[in-house]
């Protein structure tokens, strides 16, 4: 995520609370929290939204057939009550929960599952998550625009839905927990059209009560939610347009409960050294990699030697110092916690002289000019300046284009817009804990589409075929072989150098003392960045 997530420099990232009291029994005002962000939210449509900021809100509004136990990577049924898998791994049959209602009052049915998946795969939707469902039978035909239905999704009856796959898929149940697979009602999508993302209707723990663009979003508890005792809050107010430093000051004054953009870098050491905040700052590792994308469609990055030169020119240790040491340098796409991480791979050493030599071999001995896109929230522009200085040292003149996060995302999703992108603030945080998630949407051919997240526009069909074979090993007895295959795939990706992996970040977040939470859930590895459903207040 983005997603990822995500999926960015998630200093406030992954907050989720486990409360002891319910908002419905709390005194007036005690069931309300305020969250702040610098940028407005782009969309609340689960088929479209794919950044770390909106995923938590989407998760609060919608549900899927599967979910994770809060604070863990353990899958559990959600809108499903259970499922069966055929012996050949090609058929998944889900039994659905009865009596679940959308926010508009209509009961959720199996036909809604089929509609949701077909909508995501339909190329007219331009969903960045479509590729996750490529193993469902009929995906190729619908994604090619030949039909608007998925033959592999069958409504057996109102409370039973059957999926038939074209090949076994080891990550299929994880994909059913993705926001992209969260269920939407057809009548509301058709009512609002492209504006559905501003008028979302789901089955989630919260419903959207008000969205005043540029000011705030207000989420109200769903009294008919299907999980007893959830949500634990009456309302969530998300204020936008808040500079991170101002948001932190407001949190310190008791006016804000979660500073969504995190601890501002300029204030990090001050906060960490203040005993008043000792119990309010929570840290933990995450499935995250921050990277620079090199657009393989745009000169000079259509030349592998240039891409390798950039990998050798970036001083990752210095960039880690820019963010107060809140990360470790990265040398490959996978983060160290992810299965498949290659501990024997050393990556590209920092070697500016070798980088200059490679540039000369590529025909750029006299230098080359390019543009680096970056989100405009600190510390991202400062990191971009460090990258700019490093590349200047090898003869690359880099213009920095600092934009709102949504605009950077939009540029990355166009094949000819962004030669380079520093992904900080949007960098990849795992959508689910499996190595395939660090390939398909961000390095695979399926992600190199308009609106997608493969911002390097890298497409290696041979590696795609290897990835497909790896994910076909769905039998648990083949797990080690599958992970070995993924380890080899990512090593080969680095030989092509479509990325410069820069760092794997440590999570730090700060909350108000009003919140009731367990630290193990405050660093929830899957619900990115905030699993509001389980937050409570004292």
TrEMBL record:
<dbReference type="GO" id="GO:1904680">
    <property type="term" value="F:peptide transmembrane transporter activity"/>
</dbReference>
<protein>
    <submittedName>
        <fullName>ABC transporter substrate-binding protein</fullName>
    </submittedName>
</protein>
<dbReference type="InterPro" id="IPR030678">
    <property type="entry name" value="Peptide/Ni-bd"/>
</dbReference>
<dbReference type="GO" id="GO:0043190">
    <property type="term" value="C:ATP-binding cassette (ABC) transporter complex"/>
</dbReference>
<dbReference type="InterPro" id="IPR039424">
    <property type="entry name" value="SBP_5"/>
</dbReference>
<dbReference type="GO" id="GO:0030288">
    <property type="term" value="C:outer membrane-bounded periplasmic space"/>
</dbReference>
<feature type="domain" description="Solute-binding protein family 5">
    <location>
        <begin position="75"/>
        <end position="447"/>
    </location>
</feature>
<dbReference type="GO" id="GO:0015833">
    <property type="term" value="P:peptide transport"/>
</dbReference>
<dbReference type="Pfam" id="PF00496">
    <property type="entry name" value="SBP_bac_5"/>
</dbReference>
<keyword id="KW-0732">Signal</keyword>
<comment type="similarity">
    <text>Belongs to the bacterial solute-binding protein 5 family.</text>
</comment>
<dbReference type="InterPro" id="IPR023765">
    <property type="entry name" value="SBP_5_CS"/>
</dbReference>
<dbReference type="InterPro" id="IPR000914">
    <property type="entry name" value="SBP_5_dom"/>
</dbReference>
<feature type="signal peptide">
    <location>
        <begin position="1"/>
        <end position="28"/>
    </location>
</feature>
């Amino acid at each position: 995520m983005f997603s990822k997530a995500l999926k960015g420099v998630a200093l406030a990232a992954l907050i989720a609370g486990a409360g002891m009291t319910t908002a419905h029994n709390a005194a007036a005002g005690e069931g309300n929290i305020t969250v702040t962000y610098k940028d407005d939210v782009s969309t609340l449509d689960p088929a479209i939204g794919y950044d770390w900021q909106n995923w938590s809100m989407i998760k609060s509004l919608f549900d899927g057939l599967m979910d994770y136990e809060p604070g863990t990577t353990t899958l559990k049924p959600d809108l499903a009550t259970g499922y069966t898998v055929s012996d050949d791994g090609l058929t998944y049959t889900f039994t659905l929960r009865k009596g679940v209602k959308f926010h508009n009052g209509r009961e959720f049915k199996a036909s809604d599952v089929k509609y949701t998946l077909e909508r995501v795969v339909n190329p007219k939707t331009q969903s960045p998550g479509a590729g996750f469902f490529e193993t469902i039978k009929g995906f190729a035909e619908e994604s090619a625009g030949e039909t608007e239905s998925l033959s592999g999704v069958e409504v057996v009856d109102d409370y039973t839905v059957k999926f038939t796959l074209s090949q076994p898929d080891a990550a299929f149940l994880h994909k059913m927990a993705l926001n992209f697979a969260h269920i939407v009602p057809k009548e509301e999508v058709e009512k609002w059209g492209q504006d559905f993302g501003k008028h979302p209707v789901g089955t989630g723990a919260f419903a959207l009560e008000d969205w005043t663009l540029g000011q705030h979003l207000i989420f109200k508890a769903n009294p008919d939610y299907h999980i007893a005792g959830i949500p634990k809050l009456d309302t969530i107010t998300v204020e936008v347009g808040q500079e991170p430093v101002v948001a932190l000051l407001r949190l310190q004054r008791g006016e804000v409960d979660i500073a969504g953009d995190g601890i501002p870098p300029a204030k990090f050491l001050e906060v960490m050294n203040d005993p008043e905040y000792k119990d309010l700052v929570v840290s933990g590792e995450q499935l995250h990699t921050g990277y620079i994308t090199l657009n393989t469609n745009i000169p000079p990055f259509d030349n592998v030697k240039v891409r390798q030169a950039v990998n050798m020119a970036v001083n990752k240790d210095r960039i880690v110092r820019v963010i107060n040491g809140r990360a470790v340098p990265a040398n490959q796409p996978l983060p160290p916690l992810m299965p498949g991480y290659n501990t024997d791979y050393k990556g590209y050493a920092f070697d500016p002289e070798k980088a200059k030599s490679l540039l000369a071999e590529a025909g750029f001995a006299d230098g080359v000019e390019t543009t680096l896109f970056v989100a405009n929230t600190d510390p991202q522009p400062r990191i971009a300046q460090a990258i700019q200085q490093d590349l200047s040292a090898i003869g690359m003149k880099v213009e920095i284009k600092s934009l709102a996060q949504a605009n950077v995302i939009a540029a990355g999703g166009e094949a000819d817009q962004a030669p380079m992108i520093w992904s900080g603030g949007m960098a990849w945080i795992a959508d689910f804990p499996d190595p395939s998630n660090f390939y398909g949407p961000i390095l695979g051919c399926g992600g190199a589409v308009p609106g997608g997240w493969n911002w390097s526009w890298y497409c290696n069909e041979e590696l795609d075929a290897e990835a497909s074979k790896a994910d076909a090993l769905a039998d648990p007895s083949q797990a080690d072989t599958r992970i070995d295959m993924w380890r080899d795939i990512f090593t080969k990706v680095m030989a092509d150098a479509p990325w410069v992996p820069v760092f794997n970040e440590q999570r730090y977040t700060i909350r108000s003392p009003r919140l009731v939470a367990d630290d193990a859930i405050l660093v929830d590895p899957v619900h990115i960045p905030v699993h509001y459903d389980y937050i409570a207040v004292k």
